[in-house]
Automatic annotation (TrEMBL):
Species assigned in the record: Sphingomonas hankookensis
InterPro entries, sorted: Arsenate-R_ArsH, Flavoprotein-like_sf, FMN_Rdtase-like_dom
A Pfam cross-reference name: FMN_red
Name of the protein in its database record: Arsenic resistance protein ArsH
Signal sequence segment: none
SUPFAM superfamilies membership: Flavoproteins
Domain NADPH-dependent FMN reductase-like: 35-180
Amino acid sequence: MPLRTLTDPDHLPALDHRYALERPALGLGAGDPPPRILLLYGSLRERSYSRLCVEEAARLLRFFGAETRIFDPSTLPLPDQVVGDDHPAVHELRELSMWSEGQVWCSPERHGQITGIMKLQVDHLPLSIGGMRPTQGRTLAVMQVSAGSQSFNSVNTLRVLGRWMRMVTIPNQSSVAKAFEEFDDAGRMKPSSYYDRIVDVMEELVRFTILLRPHAAQLVDRYSERKDAGVPIDAATDLSSIATAPQKLD
């Protein structure tokens, strides 16, 4: 199964617990069951900084009460390479996306853009498959790592992709410059303003995911899709029809 195993999942050496909220979405909605977050990264290097950032994000999400899964794209075929996309890694990615309520996408910036590995994963997520929608209505946090000075090309592109995939992309984002300087030999992120921003982004993702949870079905209910599916509005049960119906006077 193409999932990454998270080492030291509860060890957060760069987090100052004096200022960390264990349940940042408290009061915004039901936190049980835990919000389900899928994390994707965009490099297959042995020391992949996008993967290391995603792993730090996953640890923080666990601390904030979420359930996380990190997809390993190393066995993913090219789009249209396998007839009917009948490949175990493709099936796994789509099932994980359906499982998720929110997602984290982190890509390196390569030649001023996201990597092919990152785009490959998004390209394997159709807007609709078998009447199901793997990304629509889910929350999304975007992050990037750079080898040089700070840039926002990758996160800007990921925002475009998130909008295209009909996801609710949260306002905050993370861009880590000179990522090779931000991790120790064990692959753990050092305390820094870059780390603090990732904490901010994960806090916000949990909040938005919990906040939107009870409204997810209504927020993705579209006229065009009801029309295509041949599902007319039932005036007897539709709340908007009931609210706007003429009131009978006694």
